[in-house]
Each structure stands twice: as C-alpha cells, then as structure tokens.
C-alpha cells in the first residue's frame, strides 16, 4: 500500500509523521538511549527465557529475521526479510486500531506494530501493547508461511464478521486471544509457546508452561470461541494446537453458520472445564482472583 504523507502529529509519546488512519512512519531517529536500553534488556531476558519454551518455528524465525538485540530494529530492514519469506510487511502505528482497520491490514498482509516502547519502570506490566509486545511477540511467526496465512485469513474473516454484526466479532476475538495471543503448541519435546502475549511476558512464559494453576486443554475452535478470557491476570485456560496447519484448516470453513450456532449457546467461563474437553492439565486454580472474565 503506497501511503500518502499527510502531516506531522505531536502525540503523547512523541512527534511522528502520520501517513493514513493510524499509520505513522517509525520515528527511528527519535528513540532515546533509554528506549534502546529497554529493548535490549527485554530482548536479552526473553531470548534466554524462551529457549526450550517457545516453539522452534518461532525461535528459528527470530534468528532468521536478524532482529538487533541491543538496538530497536528498523521496521524497513525487517520488512525485507518478511517480504522474501511470506510477502508480509510491518506498518508502524500509534497504538490499538479500530477493529475494521486492523482486520483490513491483516487481510492486506500488513501487521500493525506500535512504534513506541515502554518505560523502564514498566518492564513487567503494561496495560496496552507496545513495540516489544508487537514486534518481539507477534512478528517472527509472520515469517512462517502457514501461520502468516492464518493471520491473513483471520483478517478476511474479521472484515466479514464486521458485516455480520451481533456477537460474531466477540466470538472471533476469542479465537485470536486464545491462539495468536495465548496459544500453546505440541512439539516432540512437550508443550511450547507460540502466543505473542506469552512470548513477550517473562512471568507468563513460565506460568503458561510450568504453573499447576491453569487448565491446558486441546484446541477446539467452537469451544474456544465460546470461552471468555482474562485481561487483568494470566490466563485460566490455555488451548493447545498440534500444528499451525491444524489452526489454518480449522479456519477454512465459512464461519457464518458457526456464528449462528454459537448465538444459541451460552458462554463458557475462562476457568471452566467441560465434559467434552480433552484435558491435558486440570488447573489447581491457585491464585485465581475473583475479578470478572472479559
Ligand atoms: Fe498482541
């Protein structure tokens, strides 16, 4: 997409050139030494943490992209790797986009990445996604052809769900949450992480795989789409896929009759286990607080 420069904009996070709705130019020259140091610290910590925890597809892609460990990477350099591997490209954005805009980017093989990075005092907790989450967590798997196509299909499905209305978007958002953000995958050596919300969090990288508290259940698409989730704590349930092919195949179907079916069914609480679930680990529920599911 050829973007048209419109104007400069002073935002809470700095001064950036604006190209189109929500799309900016990565203001690489304006990152401070503190910004680069935050990237370096988070990168080093997660790179170490994810050995033996992240899936091989992710670790291989991270290495292949040659993200710089000690400076915030330049999106245009990463885009060269992505273009050759899967035809995707990153676009810098100010933060969360309206749903339809976000789906439109994915459908066009563009992944929106927040341009700013968290402050040093926010290393472990952020209420909104920043560059580290978006870039380190989401982008490497876009080098994987099957996962990248899943993301594109998700964008196309999102655009369609906007037209359908009702609870379709909510059901679709849960699929994203429990796969792209918080998914686990089976490997020969045991469970591994592929969800970006886990990959970019030191605490949840351990918790998702090693804590006895959460449930770990085999992925079933309609079950996942009925399941509420937590935005204020680690997840109560993680869903496990066998492969990215399985994920892509599951989303091949026309979702319209699925949304109609789901509209007749009640939602499932984030921590509940159903009789039909294939349970790998039943959580001890330790540390689950009383606040509500989303
Ligand atoms: Fe995310």
Please give a structural write-up.
- Helix 4 packs across helix 6.
- By secondary structure, the protein is an alpha/beta fold.
- Mean pLDDT is 92; it is low at 1-5.
- The chain is 41% helix and 15% strand.
- The chain is globular, with a radius of gyration of 19 Å.
- The protein has helices spanning 33-49, 56-65, 75-85, 99-107, 131-138, 145-164, 168-181, 196-199, 202-210, 221-225, 244-250, 256-263; strands at residues 7-11, 14-20, 23-24, 89-93, 110-114, 184-187, 190-193, 215-218, 237-241, 279-281.
- The strands form two sheets. A five-stranded mixed beta sheet has the order 1-2-3-4-5.
- The chain has one domain (7-281): Aromatic amino acid hydroxylase (Phenylalanine Hydroxylase, Orthogonal Bundle).
- Residues 129, 133, 138, 181, 196-197 line the site of fe (ii) ion.
Domain module tally: 1
The level-1 CATH class:
Mainly Alpha
Separation, N- and C-terminal Cα atoms: 34 Å
CATH superfamily: Aromatic amino acid hydroxylase
Q: What is the N-to-C order of secondary-structure elements (H for helix, E for strand)? A: EEEHHHEHEHHHEEHHEHEHHE
Stretches where pLDDT is under 50 for at least 5 consecutive residues are 1-5
Whole-angstrom Rg: 19 Å
Percent in strands: 5-15%
CATH topology: Phenylalanine Hydroxylase
Please provide the count of β strands.
Answer: 10
The shape is: globular
Task: Provide the structure class.
Answer: alpha/beta
Tell me the helix content. Answer: 40-55%
Bound molecules: fe (ii) ion
**Total DSSP helices:** 12
Q: Mean of the pLDDT scores?
A: 92
CATH architecture identity:
Orthogonal Bundle
């Amino acid at each position: 997409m050829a973007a048209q420069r419109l104007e400069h904009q002073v935002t809470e996070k700095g001064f950036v050139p604006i190209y189109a709705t929500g799309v900016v130019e990565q203001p690489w020259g304006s990152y401070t030494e503190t910004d680069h140091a935050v990237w370096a610290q988070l990168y080093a910590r997660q790179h170490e943490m994810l050995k033996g925890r992240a899936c091989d597809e992710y670790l291989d892609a991270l290495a292949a992209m040659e993200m710089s460990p000690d400076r915030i990477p330049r999106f245009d350099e990463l885009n060269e790797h992505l273009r050759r591997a899967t035809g995707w490209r990153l676009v810098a954005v100010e933060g969360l986009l309206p749903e339809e805009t976000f789906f439109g980017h994915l459908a066009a093989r563009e992944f929106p990445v927040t341009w700013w990075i968290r402050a040093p005092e926010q290393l472990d907790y952020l209420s909104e996604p920043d560059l580290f989450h978006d870039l380190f967590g989401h982008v490497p798997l876009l080098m994987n052809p099957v996962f990248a196509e899943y993301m594109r299909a998700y964008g196309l499905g999102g655009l369609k769900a906007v037209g359908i209305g009702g609870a379709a978007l909510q059901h679709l958002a849960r699929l994203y949450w429990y796969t792209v953000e918080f998914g686990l995958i089976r490997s020969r050596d045991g469970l591994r992480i592929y969800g970006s919300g886990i990959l970019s969090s030191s605490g949840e990288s351990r918790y998702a795989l090693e804590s006895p508290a959460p449930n770990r259940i085999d992925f079933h698409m309609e079950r996942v789409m009925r399941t509420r989730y937590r935005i204020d704590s680690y997840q109560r349930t993680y869903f496990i896929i066998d492969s990215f092919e399985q994920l892509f195949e599951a989303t091949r179907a026309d979702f319209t009759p699925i949304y109609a079916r789901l509209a007749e069914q009640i939602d499932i609480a984030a921590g509940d286990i159903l009789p039909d679930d294939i349970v790998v680990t039943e959580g001890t529920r330790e540390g689950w607080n009383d606040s509500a599911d989303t």
